[in-house]
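fyi for ur records
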Amino acid sequence: MNSPAVFDAAAETARYLSTITPQAHAKAQAYTQGGHWLILGSAIVSLLVSWLVIRSGVLVRIRQSIEGWRSRPWLASLAVLAAAQLMLTLLGLPWTIYESWWRESQYGLTSQSLPGWLGEWAIGSVIGLVVGTLLTILFYALLRRAPKTWWVWGSGLSLVFLVIGLVVSPIAIEPIFNNYTPAPPGPVRDAVVELAKAHGVPSDKIFVYDGSKQSNRYTANVSGLFGSARVAMSDTMFKAGADMGEVRAVVAHEMGHYARQHILWQLGAMSLLLVIAFWLVDRFFAPMARLLGAGEVKGIADPAGYPVFVAVLVVIGVLGGPLMSSISRIAETDADNFSLMAAREPDGLARALMKTVEYRAATPGALEEALFYDHPAVGNRIRNGMDWKAREIAAGRLKP
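which gave:
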């Protein structure tokens, strides 16, 4: 009597990856590796824009004119910081168009028109300008009142704004750009509700949204915090022909973020990183001011030096990028494992992951993945699922 064949996780992973055509693989690699260079390009553009704003002298003149009229530090901060953020946003617009719209269009990852993209960009920029100006006004008040320990209090203030943003975004911001509706009655909703109830996720927190307005990417996400947290599936999933196994696997992955409270522990990590980042800003503000030619800026508490502040954060962000990516990969791996445990759909997860290859190359080198990938590589994620499947088959809990 022949013994049953042993499930080969490596061979099954290779079978999935072999379905990527050479042309698709080359395109995905070009897009992904080009995205790595965009990190450097964005940093250079940000530094250049900061230099242009500083060299224009506009911010110093605004501050001087208000100081000559009335001694109101908060008023000077309001005018200077609003002007600074507006100038930085507008001067960076050409690069933003290239990075966020033109390049996505060239790779077939968006069908949105440029006017449509610009309209949403304008709305987002106005919201960012209002919120950013309020945050930075409070920030500079801290700089004036606690010049030696502002970086501690500033990180706390930033974290408060971040938490408020996470709570408010699904309620007030995201509906501006997309239409979110509860998953409609039918097999998909029934499967999702069953998963939610089995794992302590509120079943009324599962939504479908018209993500194809902005992007053709096959995706879902979890957003919000506390009572506003929800799982949302983009309609691109269904336009790409997602089957029930894929839906269950993807939704369970997003439920994993919710159930494992990844947002909360990522906020904890962020609070520590913010303290370190602002401490570094405190130490390197003066050298960066000299490098950008900000001779008329009075110091780190001068709102006219905001572009210098931004420039230091940009450099820190580039250097700290691999650490942030590593934190994200840990959460994504945990969410995958939750999906495997909850949905028990390793092949559904693999099929779904294969549909993301067009914007995330499947088989990067270990160093490339460690430095740049905020999700584990598709090949590694599929292998993780196949290893789980092999263990379940060996234990008799899953049929081959």
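The first strand starts at residue 180 and ends at 182. thats all i got for now
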